[in-house]
Amino acid sequence: MPETGYQVLSSEREEEVHFQFTPNVARNRWNHIEDLDTFFTRIYLYHQRHGFICLILQSALDLLQVIFLLVFSLFLFYCIDYPVLFRDKPADSNRVINGTDKVRLSDVFLPASKCTSKFTIFTYLYMIPLLMFALFRLMKVFNVAYHYADIKAFYNVALHIPDKELQNYTWREIIHKVIEAQKEQNMCIHKLDLTELDIYQRILRTKNYLIALVNKSVLPTNFNIPFLGDVIYFSNGMKYNLNLLLFWGPWSPFENN
Q1: Which of 1, 30, 118, 172 has its CA 20 to 30 A from that of 48?
Q2: Between 36-48 and 196-203, two packed helices, what is the crossing angle to 10 degrees?
Q3: Cα separation values, 237 from 182, 209, 233, 240, 242, Å
Q4: Distance (Å, whole) CA 66 – CA 72
Q5: What's phi and psi for 190, nearest 5 deg?
Q6: What PANTHER family does the record point to (predicted)?
């Protein structure tokens, strides 16, 4: 029986198959969020304040409000010639005061060089806190743009809600979508399934702490005023300062807890 020889058929062009695994960036982007309180609160505010553009506009208008207050107050104090406006002196020094002459705006408004030349040390002391507050507002605009850009992406990618359809969803529907997104994104690692109560507790944690401190009389709100007796005082400024001391500041006792 003749022997049969087997030879390996070699192809002139060997093809290699490469397998490449790419991670699902959208799925891992919001995995294990450390500060869920802030994250869920921003999701709530993003919906209630009608999206990214409205949030940016609100912060920008707050900044313009401070700038307008500073510029307009300086303009009223230093850039208007009030004697000319009230006809105590003529606009032209060579003319005589005449009650029938019309006062033009160009006669009343002073040039910028004359306005700044009238500045005193008290003017600069007045400008410094307002400029610092304007700088704070400017930093807030960038902070809102940075953080809420991520919330915008979360709505668009994880919740599958484009900006133009945001107003078609109620907050209850948003919560249900967040609960469904937890199964894919695994935002909270403490438990696999989120409930509506979990989300509400995260959003209202700071307010609940503050209410408990007031109810337990840890934070006094009653003040005794002579001849008036006990008066309850809890203004927005006091509330802001308490939040700053207890929750928002760098050395806050309840920070991220």
Answers
A1: 30
A2: 90
A3: 37, 18, 11, 5, 9
A4: 10
A5: -75, -25
A6: APG9 AUTOPHAGY 9, AUTOPHAGY-RELATED PROTEIN 9
Which residues, in sequence order, are bridge partners of residue 178?
Answer: none
Residues 6+ apart with CB under 8 A from 159: 174, 177, 178, 181
Single-letter amino acid, residue 257: N
Per residue in 131-173, pLDDT tens? 999 999 999 999 999 999 999 999 999 999 999 999 999 999 9
Q: Nearest to residue 175, comparing CAs of 186, 189, 159, 154?
A: 159
β-strand partners of 212: none
Tokens 């484009």 locate to 162
Give the Cα separation of 76 and 71 in Å (integer). 9
CA distance 157 to 23: 15
* Joined tokens for residue 170: 């109620």
The pTM (predicted TM-score) of the whole model is 0.77
Map out the domains of the chain as residue ranges.
36-91+102-218
List residues bridging with 222 in a β-sheet: 232
- The angle, 0 to 180 degrees and rounded to 10, between the axes of the packed helices 205-215 and 196-203 is 60
DSSP string, 99-125: TTSPPPHHHHBPPHHHHHHT--HHHHH
